[in-house]
Write a structure and sequence with these properties.
The chain has 479 residues and is of the alpha+beta class. It is 39% helix and 20% strand. The chain contains 15 helices and 16 strands. It has a 9-stranded mixed beta sheet with strand order 2-6-7-10-1-11-12-13-14. The protein has a 3-stranded antiparallel beta sheet with strand order 5-4-15, with no helix packed on it. The longest helix is centred in the middle third of the chain and has 20 residues, at 222-241. The structure holds adenosine-5'-diphosphate, zinc ion and magnesium ion.
């Protein structure tokens, strides 16, 4: 048999930190960073005798996520204790949800090779994050930082509906964008706001039962996830082809060697001894609360896309890129409102802004300037105040130290030369310095004008108005 005779099966458990101001069971801030152990109190440090109080916003955000992913919302739900020992978990149990999660039976739609496919969501539940162990920052030994302990998470569990690393990539991007649109999580991957446990198995095509799965925990880069899935599927197929069998185990993905390594045997739910948390009351969700949250949902990406195509007359290609991130989409709409030139704004986002983000390894949420500032930049080009090559320099400057583009060009003296007299002076100078090009033009080589305009732009460091140059060169050369 060969590689092609197998099918890959993947299911994801995605953890997303919620952007509530305070933690899930106390009033400590959820803010990332800060000196170790400064965002904690007796509750999140698990002092004996303290009692948790559920943050209502956490429930609201989780329901929002459930509604945005087509889930059924429970009318009654509860918190359970998941018992395990680890130094970053001072209570020795995590408050999570076991058999009565807030949301169930949803789906997220992705588009694979032009076809829509629904990826089922088994459930979305709320839980608390653990603290963090710093292994090498303070010399020998590890120290615990509990700033993250008690930060609210939702866990989004997918059905084993994914069939390739490509589908996983599309699914994760879609999920991230949904969470950004509904503003329940900032989804900053580098800060660990979005991370996934990746379950992978393989089976012969046509086989009904799933194969045994392995699980790679806590992955926080889309690129690594794709690589890890491809490697792990390949490894499993090889084991099976050699007559072996797959052990159900937890693996660690190593990005440097590009391989997976066994970490521990997979634990089962029974190992955790789940039981209802006696310190917390049941969560009742009224129809009214559900309806209010439903009404608060913002316009979702698909609807924005329709609008971009119909209202702004943008190509579908542009629209897809713009809606892929809420930050792109908001930037686009805001800037277009200011300058009334949708296609120009879209081009800036798709080309120069994306390029800059890629080079600096930034995400759309890191764009430092405002939509108004981008809109004003487009206005300056449209009015002819600056050329598009100067505009690129202005954009660079906006990334470095965001301020109004008008201010930037004044400070830098980058205003376009559009004065007829000044342009004529440059044109005459360039003609005189390039007799060969002039001769070429007279001999019928129209392209020579382009060269001369280029020389004039160089001479003026990109500040001359290229349309005026072109016109005046033709006038002079045809004299
Ligand atoms: P846990 O990993 O916590 O024991 P579950 O049994 O609910 O939890 O499964 C977790 C994830 O594993 C789900 O996303 C599910 O889709 C996925 N999964 C289950 N069986 C398989 C399989 N055979 N191959 C790939 N993924 C699987
Ligand atoms: Zn606290
Ligand atoms: Mg799991």
């Amino acid at each position: 048999m060969s590689r092609e005779d197998y099918e890959i099966v993947i299911g994801l458990e995605v953890h997303s930190e919620l952007s509530t101001k305070t933690k899930i069971f106390c009033s400590c801030p959820t803010e990332f960073g800060g000196e170790p152990n400064t965002h904690c109190c007796p509750v999140c440090m698990a002092m004996p005798g303290t009692l948790p109080v559920l943050n209502e916003k956490v429930v609201e955000y989780a329901i929002k996520a459930g509604l945005a992913t087509n889930c059924e919302i429970a009318s009654i739900s509860k918190n359970d204790r998941k018992n395990y020992f680890y130094p970053d978990l001072p209570k020795a149990y995590q408050i999570s949800q076991y058999d009565m999660p807030l949301c169930e039976h949803g789906y997220v739609e992705i588009e694979v090779g032009g076809e829509k496919k629904k990826i089922g969501l088994t459930r979305i539940h709320i839980e608390e994050d653990a603290g963090k162990l710093n292994h090498d920052d303070y010399g020998r030994g590890s120290l615990v930082d509990l700033n993250r302990a008690g930060v609210p998470l939702i866990e989004i569990v997918s059905e084993p509906d994914l069939r390739s690393s490509e589908e996983v990539d599309l699914y994760l991007k879609k999920l991230k964008s949904i969470l950004e649109y509904i503003e329940v999580s900032d989804c900053k991957m580098q800060e660990g706001s979005l991370r996934a446990d990746v379950n992978v198995s393989v089976r012969k095509k046509g086989q009904k039962e799933f194969g045994t799965r392995t699980e790679m925990k806590n992955m926080n880069s889309f690129k690594s996830i794709v690589r890890a899935i491809d490697y792990e599927a390949e490894r499993q197929i090889e084991v099976l082809e050699d007559g072996g069998k797959i052990d159900q185990e937890t693996l660690r993905w190593d990005d440097v060697s590009g391989k997976t390594f066994p970490m521990r045997d997979k634990e089962d739910a029974q190992d955790y001894r789940y039981f209802p948390d006696p310190d917390l009351v049941a969560i009742k969700i009224s129809e009214e609360m559900k309806e209010n949250i439903r009404k608060s949902l913002p316009e979702m990406p698909e609807s924005r896309k329709e609008r971009y195509i119909n209202e702004y007359k943008l190509p579908e290609y542009d629209s897809n890129i713009l809606i892929s991130s809420k930050y792109f989409s908001d930037l686009f709409e805001g800037a277009t409102k200011v300058c009334n030139n949708a296609k120009a704004v879209s081009n800036w986002i798709m080309t120069d802004i994306t390029k800059e983000l890629n080079e600096k390894e930034l995400e759309p949420s890191d764009i430092p300037f405002t939509a108004d500032e981008l809109g004003n930049l487009v206005i300056l080009i449209d009015k002819g105040t600056i050329s598009s090559s100067i505009a690129k320099k202005v954009l660079d400057e906006m990334f470095k130290e965001p301020r109004d583009p008008q201010k930037i060009i004044e400070e830098k003296g980058w205003v376009q030369i559009s004065d007829e007299g000044a342009i004529k002076e440059i044109v005459l100078k360039i003609i005189e310095a390039n007799p060969q090009s002039v001769a070429d033009f007279k001999a019928g080589k129209d392209k020579a004008v382009g060269f001369l305009v280029g020389q004039a732009m160089k001479e003026t460091k990109g500040k001359a108005n290229p349309q005026m140059l072109n016109k005046m060169f033709l006038e002079e050369l045809n004299k």
